[in-house]
Amino acid sequence: MREDKTGERISFRLEASVDAASHLPGRASLKTTVRFRLNGKPTVLHTDDERHLLWVLRTDLDLTGTKYGCGAGYCGACTVLIGREAVRSCRTTLKQVEGKDVVTIEGLASGDKLHPLQSAFMEHGGFQCGYCTSGMIMSACALLLANPHPAREAVVQGLERNLCRCGAHQRILVAVQAASERKSPAS
Ligand code: FES
Ligand code: FES
Predict the structure, then answer these.
(1) Residue 42 C-alpha to ligand 2 middle, in angstroms?
(2) Whole-structure pTM over 0.90, yes or no?
(3) Cα–Cα distance between 113 and 115 in angstroms, integer?
(4) Domain with 90 in it: what CATH number?
């Protein structure tokens, strides 16, 4: 995410414009059919498969829990799960998710029951403004899938590529470790 608000807005518009360009009449021939599972549901889209997953989630599917930060793969605000891996959706094209399982922050809870990571972030105040939170939780989810009971150093290492401008890192680490101590933290 950029420090400069004007730059952030311009960057946002450029990214959105590039993505929106895929809908221009002249590019209609680039539309293709993409199939994948999204939060456990089969999903079929007819669109340009070079579009980035982040914008498809946010603009086509109204899943705005996945955030736009830098658009360049640096901040981690846009992190989702593909399979069991944490992936930056701003740099992932639809073509790359064909046939795969994608999970966003909206897909973690089971009905009214929050995922253990979500509960732990609430209980331990693992956020301030909340902008980085869904990316943090999705990265933590991948970490706990690979290592259900990580030592503190492993949590630090697992989340070091996710940026938090508010400096909530200490509480985030506490929340992830608390979630790891619960039953089936990565389920
Ligand atoms: S928006 Fe920053 S890594 Fe994707
Ligand atoms: S950026 Fe505000 S809580 Fe992390």
Answers:
(1) 32
(2) no
(3) 7
(4) 3.10.20.30
Index of the ligand 1 atom closest to the CA of residue 75: 2
Ligand 1, atom nearest to 67 Cα:
1
Q: Beta partners for 43?
A: 36
Q: Measured from the CB, is residue 165 less than 6 Å from ligand 2?
A: yes
Atom of ligand 2 nearest to the CA of 128: 3
- Supply the pLDDT for residue 2: 41
Range of the domain at 160: 116-181
The reply to whether ligand 2 has any atom less than 6 angstroms from the CB of 144 is no
Q: Are residues 42 and 17 in the same domain?
A: yes
Three-state secondary-structure class, residue 109 = coil
Residue 155: CATH number of its domain: 1.10.150.120
Cα gap 108→97, rounded to integer Å? 19
143 and 55 share a domain?
A: no
User: Residue 47, SS3?
Assistant: strand
Is residue 130 in contact with ligand 2, taking CB distance under 6 Å?
yes
Residue 28 has pLDDT above 70, yes or no: no
- pLDDT tens digits for 94-117? 999 999 999 999 999 999 999 999
Asked if residue 40 and residue 18 are part of one domain, the reply reads: yes
